[in-house]
Amino acid sequence: MGWFFMLIILGLLIKFGAAPLYYWVITLYGNLSYYWLLFFSVYVKVVIAVLLIKLVGFNITPGFIEATSMVSLLVGTVGALQQVEIKKFFAYSSLTHVGFLLAGDVGAFWIYLLTYAISSYAIFSVLARVKIMGHEATYMSDLRLVAQASVSGRFIMLLSLLSMAGLPPFIGFFGKFVVLQSLFEDLIILNDVLTYGLLVIIILVTIVTAYYYMRLVVWLFTDVIADGKTQLAHLFSLGDRYFSIVEFSLIVALVGCGPFYINYIGLVMTKVGDLYV
């Protein structure tokens, strides 16, 4: 493999926001509005992903993509745990999702990219509507005011966060499942230390990411009352507002089709079982 080809790969990974050359992503997320973050986190990443797969693919130096995935997962998870600002939190969490994207095969890559794009679109479209004294929500504690801007938006954001956390039956669980399935198949075939290490890191990171997304859910459903104390808002308090067509479509996409997931998981488990025979 020539140096020119490696430079193309490196440039695409930098644009994709992969570690270790990720600092520009943190700065960019911190200075863009939520409308531009929606554009960058969805449309730009999809375009770069298409270039990465079509022009380069994953057929490069063994261990290079796996190492990049490991570093992205670890740096993104540790960085997100330390954040109190919403934009920087999603900047580091996007780094974690890049690690998931690079961990599986090409099929898992496209499925996870689709689940990530839908969840990101839903989250940033809701946050773009939240204004505090004319300014955007900055800190996690500002999520308490999401319901004041849009009660149904709070419900949409709840589903999106649960999806990004990888909880069933949301599409985020489906994305993480196919990545893990791909790694298990590689481990059975290759049986190498690098794949095993990546699998262990992904399992640990999945647990931690579920924790820090649930922190946002707690802030999202903590309402401020008159005496300054807080109370947990009713989970399905939708008020008098009806869901728009777009919001209803996002709910359907985020919740997904349970029977389809069950049938798919059954087929995958059968396939994995056949590998052991």
Task: Outline the structure in words.
The chain has 277 residues and is mainly α. It has one domain (3-276). The protein contains 12 helices and 4 strands. The two termini are 37 Å apart.
* Assembly state (oligomeric): single chain
State the distance separating the first and last CA atoms: 37 Å
State the total count of DSSP E strands.
4
Mean pLDDT, nearest integer?
A: 77
Write out the strand line-up for the largest beta sheet, numbering strands in chain order.
1-2
What is the approximate shape?
globular
Gyration radius from CA atoms, angstroms? 19 Å
Q: Helical percent range?
A: over 70%
State the gist of this model:
Helix content is 73%, strand content 4%. The protein is globular, with a radius of gyration of 19 Å.
Write the layout of secondary structure elements.
Elements: H1 3-16, H2 23-31, H3 34-56, H4 64-81, H5 86-103, H6 106-127, E1 131-132, E2 135-136, H7 146-149, H8 151-165, H9 171-190, H10 193-220, E3 222-224, E4 230-232, H11 245-255, H12 258-276
Antiparallel strand pairs: 1-2, 3-4
Helix pairs in contact: 1-3, 2-5, 3-6, 4-5, 4-10, 5-6, 5-10, 6-8, 6-9, 8-10, 8-11, 9-10, 9-12
Give a quick set of tags describing it:
277 residues; mainly alpha; two-stranded antiparallel ribbon; 12 helices; 73% helix
